[in-house]
Amino acid sequence: LQSTFSQALGYKTKSPCVSGQAGREDLNPAVLYPWRQRSSGGLSRVKRDWIIPPIRVLENSKQVPENLVQIKSDKIFTGEVIYKLEGPGVDQDPKDLFEIDDKTGWIRSMIPLDREKYRSFTLKAFALSPSGERLENPSTIEIVVLDQNDNRPNFSQKEFAGSVSEFSVPGTSVMSVTATDADDPTTDNAILSYSIVGQESIPPLRVNKTMFGINNETGAIYIRDVGLDREVVKGFRLILQVADMSGMGLTSLANAVIHVTDINNNPPRFSPYLVSFTNKVDFVIGWVNATDNDEPGTGNWETKYTIAKGNPSRNFAIRTDPVTNEGILSVVKTLDYETQEVYTLTLTVENVNPLSIKAPRDPVSSATVVVTVVNENEAPRFNKDPIEIVVLESVVPGTVLASNIAYDPDNAKLKYDILRDPEGWLIINHETGEITARTPFNVRSPHVKNNIYNAVIRVTDTDAGGISTTASLVITLRETNDFFPQLFPLMGTVCSESGRETSGLFLSAVDEDLPPHAEPFTFQLQDINVSANWTIIQVNETHAVLRPLVELETEEYAVTVLVTDSGTPSLSAYAQVNVTVCLCGKDGECKAEAAAIFGTRVGVSFIALLVIMASIALLLLLLLLAVAVGNCRRHHMKKGEGLLVGDSDEDIRDNVLNYDEQGGGEEDEVRQHNTLQLAEASYLQPLRKDYPDNLPSPSYPRKPPADPTDIEDFINDGLEAADHDPNVPPYDTALIYDYEGDGSLAGSLSSIASASSDGDQDYDYLNDWGPRFKKLANMYDPR
């Protein structure tokens, strides 16, 4: 048993249980007893299975099929034992690599094995009876494929690239290369060795000595010798070799290209050292050149030019052409021939990158440039561009805004023009350039942005060529207080209830001026009589409340309010506010009977509808009155009565005769005089009103007759009041302005001129009639 056990563990002991072919004893035992167990008399226990050593098989063996090992059971069975093998390589993928002789138990390899594909196989061996009954428990058999050196090492790249600075010292690392081998890394078959088998300089034949070495174990390439100069050689091409078996086995080749990089070891130098230019234009005047032996396109080759001397006023500048590396010298400030004719400049040149410590310590290269200024007809120049002016918007026409704005370096005669003045506010003297205001400015013009008005001025010399220059004229407008404040509303209602405080009318003021010439506004009552009954209370900067001081009767009142802005100087305006004092309901609206009388508030309620209906009825009544009065007047005219003047023909001057038929004249020729009709009972002393013409005229209430049961009496009373009113013309007659012919009622109407000289008449009183007669007053103004 001991001998069999030793053979089972793979020991080289001779035993009758071990048999096999000669020369195989060093790899595998001839016979395996995988099911052998220890036993003794009496009680026994089952031991663990024996540890079976792996079966070793060389890859790529050509002797196939090949017996590997024989397995047997050492138990005595009455019948035949059948052996069976299962697992990868037998009945599992990859199939049919191994098989077993079911009678003898020999395991064979059927085809050559490849270790790089399958390194080992784990199989199950069975001992069965002819009926298929297991005689022993399954036993595990492991087959290991042994490696052979059948794979060449391979570089990771066909060509490697690296770089190294010129003049690097020996031992400087350049790059590393790598290779792999598919053979077993635990054997010599995969131990690699690197070497350099060839070297070629770029360009060829520039360097003959070996410049690089390689670490045979790691593949690190390093500098071996001195003398790397990029100005001599640009790079090297190396032929690399890797071999397995520590350099004694299979080999492969690859290339390595090493570039020699530049260091700044060559300072730039001017060529030539003296350059002359003539300044014919005011920009680029010439190019200077410096040579550098370092690699083009790098910071070691790129140059930086400097004007070291001769440029105290910075009239010149120099820059580098990025393509040619030349210096471009240009004029950045206009040169004046009358001031200086020749400039001598000293230029220096350096590299963009600092010089290497390995570069020679030569002084910085310099060159001298002589620039000769050529006298030319120069363009005129403005003293300032832009020309800035600050002026009030209400500037007086003819005010001088700017003068002495330009000059000519050659003392040529100049001519001035305005190229752009969209509002036409400016006048320029073509010879002196003096700019004056044509009209007052308007800060609200669409061409004024942020209170700035822009114009363009041109000045041209009158010598040959006519060179011109333009400049911007920037006018900053300051706001002036040129608009009167306006008050609104100009009519409203105030509720009056006995025993309760009377409500007020809210007033507001606006001003088209900008701050600080607008709000805050002040509100005042100027009339002493009005101030006794009314007061005005300032609410805020733009609002006030007009409120009665005493209990007033329910009727309409004309209250004159003076509103003043905060400008400098301040402007004031009078406004007549028509206030209706009426009895109000719970909702604060005038009651129906009050609204019908005064008609100052119209709402959208049922009360408002009653007011509208009452107003229509009153309008129809007035229309009937007007028709009746007209008929009566015609009746009197037929009798020669009803004129406001006597029967004398000499007394009809400054009047217009009534012809019964009058054509539809224009509004500004014959006014609707019925608007001037006032009842005698409601006539009030006219108030002076200084407010815009678009404000509504005051409306005075006219009370209806107490009991108009007799419409004829009512009409006759109204007619009599109109006939005896000396202040207004009748309803159905035109105003008589002047005498229009001698002895003929159909005199010429081609002119409104009077029969007598206008010089004998005094029309100054027309100026007192208010803004509605302003146009007529201007027509007769002797000025």
TrEMBL record:
Cadherins are calcium-dependent cell adhesion proteins. The keyword Transport does not apply. It holds the Pfam family Cadherin. The gene is CDH15. Residues 690-713 are annotated as: Disordered. This is Cadherin 15, type 1, M-cadherin (myotubule). Keywords: Calcium, Cell adhesion, Cell junction, Cell membrane, Glycoprotein, Membrane, Metal-binding, Repeat, Transmembrane, Transmembrane helix. One of its GO terms (biological process) is cell migration involved in gastrulation.
